[in-house]
Design goal:
By secondary structure, the chain is α/β, with parallel strands linked by helices. Helices cover 41% and strands 16% of the residues. The strands form 3 sheets. A 7-stranded parallel beta sheet has the order 3-2-1-6-7-8-9, sandwiched between helices. The protein has 2 domains: 228 residues, Glycogen Phosphorylase B (Rossmann fold, 3-Layer(aba) Sandwich), CATH 3.40.50; 163 residues, Rossmann fold, CATH 3.40.50.2000.
Length: 414
């Protein structure tokens, strides 16, 4: 980083864990449209609701004015001209270390009991470095399968290779990325992941304890009551919400349209919400009369769009959880997901949707298209399940894990 970092105050590292702990949170993403940002915004809202001492250090263009009445503080830092685009609204700034002194000053003033990072971004690296410098325990949560994303985003290159070599190259990239990322996560005292499968992977790779950090849903915002189109309109509206990118497997959507037509199911409309590098190819592959591209939606516009769907089609194999799946269920919309990644832990097979391989999506959709009573029952089941989820329950468990990590660190004098 830079020289000139002062030594931490002794009490910063030797104080017994207080209740509640003072948390400095360094999210990879906050204002963007993705799962990390969605979780991070809800984490800040949770800390505000419960009046918890919380500092959020994040990337952004404006620094909110401090609210003396709030226990939540914000340090928002701009990314610069050297930033490298990762997604349409997300970048990595290799020169982010220029903010080092400002972050250090804020951390020493705040006196965190624990620093929490969400991944190997410039924010994550900064948070991990300060945890080491200040002698503060580090927590790290895994939100994105960066190893799988890296392999899939090389498809432009590996697709030019013979199938066996392409598969081998992608496997090596995936393994190397996981190994590199695991080195950062080994610095943490406690880890979090959105499903048990990922927790097992992290515990094996880092030899650190991992706790579930699932995601909740706002069942007031996302509700069947937001629906504005008739339930029996004659059209089957298939929705997709998320990035339009290679790792989301969105190329399956045009294939579904053609296969459904071959089965004689023509009254199908796609409602596609999101943006990304694959949008142009999707527009070209889907008949204009059968696909609406709504762009990025938020708030009530998004909840209304969900409620107007009949079925969420989410073909991603790489998502660690699947916020959009839970939001759809809360809206009374069953979902079809793949056996890969975290969404399979949300959907109850045959009750709130289907878990199917790519080649099974068409038959699952056809089943619901031909059986309105099954679709109606799944809609009710989806909403009932979502009502059992809450953000408070998610973050209560995170704070319990913090306390365990803090007690262990204090007992061992670290």
């Amino acid at each position: 980083m830079q020289e000139g970092t002062t030594n931490p105050e002794p009490e910063l590292t030797r104080r017994a864990p207080a209740r509640p702990p003072r948390v400095a949170y360094f999210p990879d993403s906050f204002h963007e449209v993705n799962g990390v940002a969605h979780t991070s915004r809800n984490f800040v809202a949770y800390a505000q609701r419960h009046r918890l001492p919380f500092l959020c250090v994040r990337a952004g263009k404006t620094n909110p004015q401090p609210d003396p009445a709030s226990t939540v503080q914000t340090l928002e830092l701009p990314r610069g001209f050297a930033s490298v685009g990762i997604e349409k609204d997300l970048a990595f700034d290799p020169l982010f270390g220029r903010h080092l002194t400002r972050v250090e000053r804020e951390l020493i003033r705040f006196k965190p009991d624990i620093i929490h990072i969400t991944g190997p971004s410039e924010l994550g690296l900064l948070g991990a470095w300060f945890a080491s410098e200040l002698g503060v325990p580090l927590a790290a949560s895994w939100h994105t399968n960066v190893h799988e994303y890296a392999a899939r985003r090389l498809s432009w290159l590996t697709s030019r290779l013979p199938a066996r070599q392409a598969s081998l190259a992608e496997a090596r990239v995936e393994s190397a990325t996981l190994w590199t990322t695991a080195h950062l996560y080994r610095l943490a005292k406690v880890l979090f992941a959105p499903n048990r499968e990922l927790c097992d992977l992290l515990e094996h790779a880092t030899h650190r304890p991992c706790h579930l950090m699932q995601r909740g849903v706002d069942t007031a915002l996302f509700s069947p009551a937001r629906r504005t189109r008739p339930t029996s309109s004659g059209k089957l509206v298939l929705g997709y919400v998320g990035r339009l990118s290679i790792e989301k497997n969105v190329a399956l959507l045009p294939l579904l349209e053609r296969q459904l037509a071959d089965l004689g199911i023509h009254d199908v409309q796609f409602l596609i919400i999101g943006h990304g590098s694959e949008e142009a190819s999707l527009r070209a592959a889907l008949p204009a009369a059968k696909a609406e591209f709504a762009g990025v939606l938020r708030g009530e516009a998004l909840s209304t769009a969900y409620a107007n769907m009949d079925l969420l089609v989410f073909p991603s194999h790489t998502d660690t959880f699947g916020n959009v799946v839970l939001e759809a269920l809360a809206s009374g919309v069953p979902a079809i997901v793949t056996p890969g990644g975290g969404p399979k832990y949300i959907v109850q097979q045959g009750e709130t949707g289907f878990i199917a391989p790519d080649e099974g999506f068409t038959s699952a959709i056809a089943t619901l298209a031909k059986d309105p009573s099954l679709l109606h029952r799944m809609r009710e089941n989806a909403r009932a399940y979502a009502l059992t989820c809450s953000w408070d329950a998610v973050f209560h468990r995170v704070y319990d894990a913090y306390q365990t990590a803090l007690r262990t660190s204090f007992d061992h004098g670290t």
